[in-house]
């Protein structure tokens, strides 16, 4: 089998027909180029450019960035709900542990959800701006391996979902994720407005980390039952990898929480 046949098998025959020709989804090259440029800038080009320069303040830019994140994530939450995730049947179906709910039993507007997830990919691209802000403010310590991997893996899993999966049950995960991001960026916006406000709402900061950990637990709770059910139509390989990814994040966020908040309380 030649390289052309291998490529055709991996990226055409195995892909979902509905999204096969979609922009940025048809081939992996745009994704690979974007990720390469992101990693190159935040780990090499950006720090090198800032080496002999003072840090940029970017306060107004950051506040605008936070507002865009709030509004965009709110819009995606609204679109998820209008596509069917507001119904009791949908929520009962996704959390019903005794059997695997088939696609046809969920009252969801599949076309609307899949199109929306494609647009959600641009929001995940916009998330990369956060890392660039860290670099330009010379806060390179915040550009951790976990931070970079988190953004890269989010975009990669989303691309895989659109290319090979298109299971509307998984859109509950994006709904929950967007809802969490609304709360997160409201906090970031208020904290970034002034040092006084940041100090005032500082007790909320541990809650934000807890909320993110709850998010990972809920996502795992949604994915595990279908994996364990042999009668469930599911791409188990990628689902198991995704759960492993969530478990790593859960461990690292929990470790961060203990070091940042629990240890400080003990030292008081």
UniProtKB/TrEMBL annotation:
It catalyses: a very-long-chain acyl-CoA + malonyl-CoA + H(+) = a very-long-chain 3-oxoacyl-CoA + CO2 + CoA. It comes from the Eukaryota. The chain crosses the membrane at residues 22-46, 58-77, 116-136, 148-166, 172-190, 211-228, 234-253. GO terms for cellular component: endoplasmic reticulum membrane. It is a multi-pass membrane protein. It is an enzyme of class 2 (transferase). Its main location: membrane. Its EC number is 2.3.1.199. GO terms for biological process: fatty acid elongation, monounsaturated fatty acid; fatty acid elongation, polyunsaturated fatty acid; fatty acid elongation, saturated fatty acid; sphingolipid biosynthetic process; very long-chain fatty acid biosynthetic process. It holds the Pfam family ELO. It is found in: Membrane. InterPro entries: ELO_fam (IPR002076). Keywords: Fatty acid biosynthesis, Fatty acid metabolism, Lipid biosynthesis, Lipid metabolism, Membrane, Transferase, Transmembrane, Transmembrane helix. GO terms for molecular function: fatty acid elongase activity. Belongs to the ELO family. This is Elongation of very long chain fatty acids protein. The gene is LOC112460510.
